[in-house]
Design goal:
The chain has about 210 residues and is of the alpha/beta class. The chain has helices at about 15-25, 90-105, 120-135, 155-165, 175-180, 185-195, and strands at about 5-10, 30-35, 50-55, 70-75, 110-115, 140-145, 150, 185, 205. GO terms for molecular function: protein-containing complex binding.
């Protein structure tokens, strides 16, 4: 199965957008998330080349038995901005990254991890710990920094994006606003698919906030 793309967190906001664009580009997409198939009344959700797998990668490894042998690329979008009683940074960022990247490494599959440069202290700490784990591996890993991900139809995020863009031009706020400089979800998805279209032989960082 050529060009088979594996996305962890494919049923989320960013993941759904990447899945749609990947299908258009001819990928067969496997999405793994705790929710599995999203409850959306959209044609692409039931596309013949779209496979949804409901699995908690931290709790069990049954998802590994549902994948084809020749995965082209692995993308990890799993994460939470704020913890809750059910989800912690350890269980939602650090552990999934460790499990998924180990799987990718053992199967020699290039791996992309979506990180961040600014956010709640625990969130950034967890992201940095995940990054450190990746840099110690020999597998080809790409770490992407995206900033605030927006969408035209989400008014609140659009307002936040405008504030960040204005703040980035002010001397006292410029540095901090630049760390989370907004990017539209369509542009982020296209950029990620462009990155994986020609996999590098060495690990790298891609900063989309600059």
């Amino acid at each position: 199965m050529p060009n088979t793309l594996l996305i962890f967190g494919g049923s989320g906001f960013i993941g759904r957008n990447i899945c749609q664009k990947a299908l258009i580009q001819g990928y067969h997409v496997y999405s793994i998330s705790t929710h599995g198939k999203p409850s959306l009344n959209e044609e692409w959700v039931n596309h013949a080349n779209m496979t949804w797998i409901a699995s908690d990668v931290v709790d069990h490894d049954t998802w590994q038995k549902q994948l084809p042998q020749n995965i082209y690329y692995c993308i990890n979008l799993i994460g939470i901005l704020l913890p809750s009683n059910k989800q912690t940074y350890q269980s939602s960022i650090i552990e999934p990254n460790k499990i998924i990247s180990q799987w990718a490494s053992s199967h020699c599959v290039p791996y992309l991890f979506l990180s961040a440069k600014l956010g709640p202290f625990g969130y950034i700490k967890a992201k940095k710990e995940a990054e450190s784990y990746l840099t110690a591996q020999t597998n080809v890993n790409t770490i992407v920094y995206s900033g605030l991900v927006t969408q035209k139809k989400k008014r609140l995020k659009q307002m936040q994006a405008i504030a960040l863009k204005l703040g980035s031009s002010l001397p006292l706020l410029s540095y901090w606003c630049r760390q989370v400089y907004p990017i539209d979800v369509d542009k982020l998805s296209k950029t990620i698919l462009n990155i994986i279209s020609t996999p590098d032989k060495q690990s790298k960082y891609v900063d989309l906030t600059q």
